[in-house]
Amino acid sequence: MKALVIFCHPNPKSFNAAILDVVKQELEQRAAEIKVKDLYAMNWNPVLSASDFQQFLANQKPEDIAGEQADVAWADILVLISPIWWFSVPAMLKGYIDRVMSQGFAYEYTDNGPRGLLPGKRAAIITTSGADENTANQSGMMQAINTSFVNGIFAFCGFADVKYINYYAVPMVSNEERKQMLDNVRQFIKTI
Length: 192
Fold this sequence. Notes:
By secondary structure, the protein is α/β, with parallel strands linked by helices. It has one domain (2-190): 3-Layer(aba) Sandwich (Rossmann fold), CATH 3.40.50. Helix content is 43%, strand content 21%. It has seven helices and seven strands. A five-stranded parallel sheet has the order 2-1-3-6-7, sandwiched between helices. β1 (2-7), α1 and β2 form a beta-alpha-beta unit. α1 (15-29) packs parallel to α7 (175-190). The longest helix has 16 residues, at 141-156.
């Protein structure tokens, strides 16, 4: 298995970073080839610019996008680790998707409608939220993430399987509960 792990949190000591450590451990135990993209450490530029569009129209790709697309093409599975801020993922991750999962690479338009160009790939999305489960569900936050990421982005791009899990109320739970969450991450990764 070739796993591309996309990590998006500015604090290297965050609970999301602890999730990243567990994900890497579990993938290593499965003898997976792993590439980790820490978007903040990379100082990834999340802005899809006019220059990017001009290069796409000229059948060219900015160097940073071409490198990321090569890694996505290499991977069997993408694992995304991110907090949810204001009912969505951070701009850094959204910008990564905007720039990397571009038309002509991840999808195309045909006479019969859009067609995903990344068939057979899988994704595992792991998020954390400050909201508890009841609040997150009542607010529509979880439905929005499912609609935009699971059914939107990855299904649109042709992914064969997308699994998603969120860990709720992370800032408010006890260390013991966080430990249980990390144990759950281990089990989640075993299912991908």
